[in-house]
């Protein structure tokens, strides 16, 4: 079927754009020899893992369930980081993961006797904040719980470590990576020459049109050549950037001083980052308020008064039954959605390079009920 024929709401993964992104990532791999992993916290549509695994090296997880998914569905390198681990989780993680990264030396000390067979790393905090727009995503903010600072780094634990890991970026270009690496070298460089690898984390918008790939590759080569370490990258958004849509239907138009479209999709339930960051998601064939003849506020059929997606304008009047297409909806949507108000979860479809769609997952009442008791 075609995208306009899908039952709504529905996420649609654009395989053509996904593969385009993957080719860019493979270029970085081929040009530098680095290893690239999918950060599943941004995109966990495992129906696409066979395709993704043709271009990059594996997955990284934020806990046991993501680690299991990466192992079962991609089966390549499998890394995990969590601020803390439960003992029962560690027993399973060491069986399915190649690398385990710890957030503190107290956690390493607690679990050190259970880590046979995995490459152990420590997350560091270079205390180099490059965030300007999204403070909620700044791991280098004062008092951050994420990563060991220079002051708290315990050299006596180095014999247990194979590598260091940092993750400080969010939707950023390679100039911010370069700035961060300067801080990492200044504060932790003396430890790197005795280690095997350095993980540069995620937040690199590698597949964005204006991203400086040459600077990224230069940064990777510099760290490899100077310290003799293997370099890992963990992009999440970059893998599926602009590679998905959320198709929704207009259910009603309410005019209480503002013309508001009531949709069967929800910011709160189906694209939580719209409220959390916040941001205004791109919408096909729309403009800024007042830019086109017809301006509407887009909202949902939940009871949350603030479940508002944003204000958009259109070339023609919008009516109940019309379909709207939110773009860049592959990332941080399926992985963060919820069933507040008993809202149905959107189906998941994939669209091939000819525009043909096939539904790979549908959800119903039992998916809502089984989360409860």
Automatic annotation (TrEMBL):
Gene3D superfamilies per UniProt: Alanine racemase (3.20.20.10), Lyase, Ornithine Decarboxylase, Chain A, domain 1 (2.40.37.10)
Keyword terms of this UniProt record: Decarboxylase, Lyase, Pyridoxal phosphate, Spermidine biosynthesis
CDD domains for the chain: PLPDE_III_CANSDC (cd06829)
Leader sequence segment: none
UniProt enzyme class: lyase
SUPFAM superfamilies per record: Alanine racemase C-terminal domain-like, PLP-binding barrel
Cofactors required: pyridoxal 5'-phosphate
Protein name in UniProt: Carboxynorspermidine decarboxylase
Protein species of origin: Lacrimispora xylanolytica
Recorded name of the encoding gene: nspC
């Amino acid at each position: 079927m075609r995208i306009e024929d899908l039952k709504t709401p529905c996420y649609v993964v654009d395989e053509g754009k996904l593969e385009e992104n993957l080719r860019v990532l493979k270029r970085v791999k081929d040009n530098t020899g680095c290893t690239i992993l999918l950060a599943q916290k941004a995109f966990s549509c495992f129906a696409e893992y066979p395709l993704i695994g043709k271009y990059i090296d594996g997955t990284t997880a934020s806990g046991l369930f993501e680690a299991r998914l990466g192992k079962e569905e991609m089966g390549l390198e499998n890394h995990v980081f969590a601020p803390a681990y439960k003992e029962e989780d560690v027993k399973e993680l060491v069986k399915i993961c190649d690398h385990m990264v710890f957030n503190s030396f107290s956690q390493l000390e607690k679990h050190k006797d259970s880590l046979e067979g995995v490459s152990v790393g420590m997350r560091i905090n270079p205390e180099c904040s490059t965030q300007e727009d999204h403070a909620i995503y700044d791991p280098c903010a004062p008092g951050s719980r994420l990563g060991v600072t220079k002051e708290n780094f315990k050299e006596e634990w180095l014999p247990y470590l194979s590598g260091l890991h940092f993750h400080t970026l969010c939707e950023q270009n390679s100039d911010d990576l370069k700035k961060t690496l300067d801080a990492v070298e200044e504060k932790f460089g003396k430890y790197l020459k005795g280690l095997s690898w350095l993980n540069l984390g995620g937040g690199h918008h590698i597949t964005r049109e204006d991203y400086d790939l040459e600077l990224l590759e230069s940064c990777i080569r510099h760290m490899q050549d100077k310290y003799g370490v293997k370099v890992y990258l963990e992009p999440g958004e970059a893998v599926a950037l602009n590679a998905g849509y959320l198709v929704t239907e207009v259910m009603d138009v309410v005019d209480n001083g503002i013309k508001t479209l009531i949709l069967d999709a929800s910011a709160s339930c189906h694209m939580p980052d719209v409220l959390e960051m916040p941001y205004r998601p791109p919408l096909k064939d729309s403009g800024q308020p007042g830019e086109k003849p017809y301006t509407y506020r887009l909202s949902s059929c939940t009871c949350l008064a603030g479940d508002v997606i944003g204000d958009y304008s259109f070339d023609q009047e919008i009516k109940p039954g019309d379909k709207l297409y939110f773009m860049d909806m592959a990332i941080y949507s399926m992985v963060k959605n919820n069933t507040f108000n008993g809202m149905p979860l959107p189906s998941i479809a994939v669209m091939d390079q000819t525009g043909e769609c096939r539904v790979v997952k549908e959800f119903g009442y039992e998916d809502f009920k089984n989360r409860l008791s």
